[in-house]
Amino acid sequence: MYIQIIQLIEKNINLILKVSSLDEDFRRYLKDQINFGVKLYERMKKVFYLLLCGAFVLNTLSAQTADEIVDKYIKANGGLDKLKSIETTLMEGKINAQGMEVGINMISKKNKGAKMVIELMGMKGWTIMTPDSGWIFMPFQGQTKPESMTSEQIKSSIDQLDLEGELVNYKEKGHAVEYLGMDDVEGTDCYKLKVTTKTGNTHYMLIDPTSNYIVRKISKQKADGKEIDVTVDFSNYKLTENGYLFPHTISAMGGPVEFTKVVINGNIDDSEFKPMN
Predict the structure, then answer these.
(1) Confidence label for 12 from pLDDT (cuts 50, 70 and 90)
(2) Angle 24-76/2-17 helices, nearest 10 degrees?
(3) What three-state secondary structure class fits 203?
(4) φ and ψ at 134, to 5 degrees?
(5) pTM of the predicted model, to two decimals?
(6) 66 and 193 in contact (C-beta within 8 Å)?
């Protein structure tokens, strides 16, 4: 805008200089003003150019930093081919809640479905979800039959069907990753990445700069019409029998789940992801 104003002033002053009746001193004054305006215009062009270049460099550096962190994470977790080869997962564990032992079994099949079974007080509750459907049955909460998930619940949970993880080939998947700097996790400064998925979900990944493992994931979800942060911590990383690195302790609001069995690429039938009787 400032450049356009200067150019307009310069044009009008040049028109005035063509008027023959002007006093010579006034002509010199106007010429001085023109020269000043031209010099200011040139300086401002340089400033704007430098600002534009600076913005471009900052954006480039930010993108490079995010990609470098993602690359380190992928390498630390076995490499791109290893992560892309994950087709199914089976995890068995338990959680101690208020003096009670709760059994938790989780199975997933890449882009097909996920199921979690909870065993408590001789009863089994479960959640099942597929790319377009989902069901919840929790008899401990008084449910007598399965209930369908809402579209919002399915949308907020759909990313868990990507067994590779949102960071793997994130650009090809249509996700965006932004490096937000460092953030504290239990006394350790960790890389903080903001992941916005193609479906519009937002996750924050906290990655330990020494191990390059994800140690915390914060997901934005909606509950009762309000947006909440769901925080999950990952620790106790171990290799499975076939060489896949997985966290064997996962902590959320209910407490830490200790997984005693983790099987990668075992046989899981699609029928597992249909509502149970």
Answers:
(1) very low
(2) 160
(3) strand
(4) -165, 150
(5) 0.74
(6) yes
